[in-house]
Design a protein that fits this description.
Blueprint lengths: L1 E5 L8 H14 L4 E5 L5 H5 L9 H6 L9 E3 L3 E4 L5 H8 L8 H8 L6 E5 L6 H9 L2 E7 L2 H20 L5 E9 L4 H13 L4 E7 L2 H5 L7 H4 L4 H27 L13
Parallel strand pairs: 1-5, 1-6, 2-4, 2-5, 6-7, 7-8
Antiparallel strand pairs: 3-4
Helix pairs in contact: 1-11, 5-6
Bound molecules: adenosine-5'-triphosphate and magnesium ion.
The site of magnesium ion has 5 residues, from α1.
Length: 271
C-alpha cells in the first residue's frame, strides 16, 4: 500500500477535493482505496456521504489497532475512516503520549495488505494531524492554489517536509499539484511557472482546472467521476491518478534497482 498525505497549512486550496477525487480515479482504475479524514471539520466525511458513527479517526489515533474496526465503505467504491469534532480533543490528548507522531503510522501498517492506496485528508494547520500524516506517508502531496500568495506558503511546506525527513520519516517524497487553475488568467500561468521553477521535478504535469462541477459534487455525496464523468475536472483527476501510478511504479523499480530507500531524492521522471 502507498500512503499519500494531502497537506497544506493554507485553507481552502483543494485538499479535501483532491483526496476524494484522486481516490475515486484510482478506484476507477481498479485500485483498492482507503480515505482517512484527519480534519476535525469532517469535510471529507460529509463529502463521501457518511455519517461519523462507530469508531472514528480519534479512536484510531489513541489506539492504532482500532483501525481494523473503523473502516467503512463509502461513495466511489472506496472505504473511509471518518472524523468528528472530537478529533480536536484527541490532538490535545496526544501530547500525553510518548512519540505521538507515530500513532497513525502504526495504524496504517496494520491495514497495508487490504488496500493499494491510502489517502489522508489533513486540516489547514500544522498540528499533530499533519505530523502524523506525514510520518505515515510515502508522499506529501501539496495542492497549490494558483495564486501568488500560495507560493509563499510553499516554502513553509518544504521546511516541514525537510524536518519530517530528518526526524520521523526519511523516505517521505514531496509532490505538488496545481489546483483551481484558470488558464484564461496570466496570473495563474505565472504562479504555475514559478512553482515549477522553484520545485523542479516535484510539480505534477497534470493541472486541476477551476470548475464549479468540482464544488457541486460533494453536495450530493458524489465524486466528480460520478457527478460529471465527462467534465474537465473528472478528466484532470484521472490524469493525475495516471501520473501517480506511473511514478509509483518507476519509484518501486528504482528501489529494486538500487536496493535503497532514496525516497527524498527521487524526482518525477521527465514527462
Ligand atoms: N478545482 C476546483 N474548482 C472549483 N472549486 C473548487 C476546486 N477545488 C475545490 N473547490 C472548492 O473550493 C472549496 C475549498 O476546497 P476544499 O474543501 O477541497 O479545500 P481544502 O483545502 O480541503 O479546505 P480546508 O483547508 O478548509 O480543509 C470547496 O468549496 C470546494 O468545493
Ligand atoms: Mg479540507
Amino acid at each position: 500500500m502507498l500512503t499519500y498525505a494531502i497537506v497544506n497549512q493554507k485553507g481552502g486550496v483543494g485538499k479535501t477535493t483532491s483526496t476524494i477525487n484522486l481516490g475515486a480515479a484510482l478506484a476507477e482504475m481498479g485500485k483498492r482505496v482507503l480515505l482517512l479524514d484527519m480534519d476535525p471539520q469532517g469535510s471529507l466525511t460529509a463529502a463521501v456521504g457518511r455519517a461519523a458513527t462507530g469508531l472514528t479517526m480519534g479512536d484510531v489515533l489513541l489506539a492504532p489497532e482500532s483501525i481494523l474496526h473503523a473502516i467503512y465503505p463509502c461513495t466511489g467504491n472506496m472505504h473511509v475512516v471518518t472524523a468528528t469534532a472530537r478529533l480536536a480533543n484527541v490532538f490535545l490528548q496526544l501530547d500525553e503520549i510518548g512519540e505521538p507522531a507515530y500513532q497513525l503510522q502504526k495504524a496504517v501498517h496494520l491495514i497495508g495488505t487490504n488496500f493499494d492506496y491510502c489517502l489522508i485528508d489533513c486540516p489547514p494547520s500544522l498540528s499533530h494531524a499533519t505530523t502524523n500524516a506525514m510520518t505515515a506517508a510515502d508522499v506529501a502531496l501539496v495542492p497549490l492554489q494558483c495564486e501568488f500568495l500560495s507560493l509563499r506558503g510553499l516554502a513553509d511546506v518544504q521546511e516541514i517536509t525537510a524536518s519530517i525527513q530528518e526526524t520521523t520519516n526519511r523516505n517521505l517524497r514531496l509532490r505538488v499539484v496545481a489546483t483551481m487553475y484558470d488558464k484564461r488568467t496570466l496570473h495563474a500561468q505565472d504562479v504555475l511557472r514559478e512553482a515549477r521553477r522553484a520545485l523542479p521535478g516535484l510539480v505534477y504535469e497534470t493541472v486541476i482546472p477551476r470548475t464549479v462541477r468540482l464544488a457541486e459534487a460533494p453536495a450530493v455525496g458524489q465524486t466528480i467521476l460520478q457527478y460529471a464523468p465527462d467534465s474537465n475536472g473528472a478528466y484532470a483527476y484521472r490524469a493525475l491518478a495516471q501520473e501517480v501510478l506511473q511514478e509509483d511504479q518507476a519509484y518501486a523499480a528504482s528501489r529494486r534497482h538500487t536496493g535503497s530507500h532514496a525516497g527524498a531524492a527521487f524526482a518525477r521522471p521527465a514527462a
